[in-house]
Amino acid sequence: MTQAANNYGQVLYELKVPKGMVEEAEVLFREVPQLKEALVSPVVKKSEKNRVIDRVFPAELRNFLKVLCGHQDMGEVEDVFEAYHAYACEQEGSLRATLYYVTEPDAEQLKKIKQMLMKKYQKQDVELRLVKDSSLGGGFVIRTGDMETDWSIKGRMKQLEQILMRR
Fold first, then answer.
1. d(CA 153, CA 157)
2. CA distances (Å), origin 21, targets 24, 28, 58, 159
3. 1-41 pLDDT, tens per residue?
């Protein structure tokens, strides 16, 4: 993630745009890739990009997205949203983590995972994103920032392979 994306994420947080609006914009960019393509395209005029932003996004986000377009940084919008969430968690004393799984954990397992993460990172709360990943073969992987805890079959096989290669 670039420093620019981190800076934009912090600015977005400090603008006090409601978290739900940021998440809705995130989903929109993810589900409609043509939207980002149009806003990144050098062929599309700035006035047309601004018109699209005015029609699609809530007022609280419009100026911010227009600045991204104006500085030709719309290509980093996903990283900006990621930086926003990371900064928000940091400011609110919580931890943002992603749980990659094959079989979705039940409520009790999620509770224990969150408790373990809160204790390990000394945080008051954990915002846990769940992502299904069948390539893991079984088990799960937890990513928090630049740390990864791998309890997947795929990860264990890779560790075993590395041990055997050293012999």
1. 6
2. 5, 10, 8, 41
3. 788 888 999 999 999 999 999 999 999 999 999 999 999 99
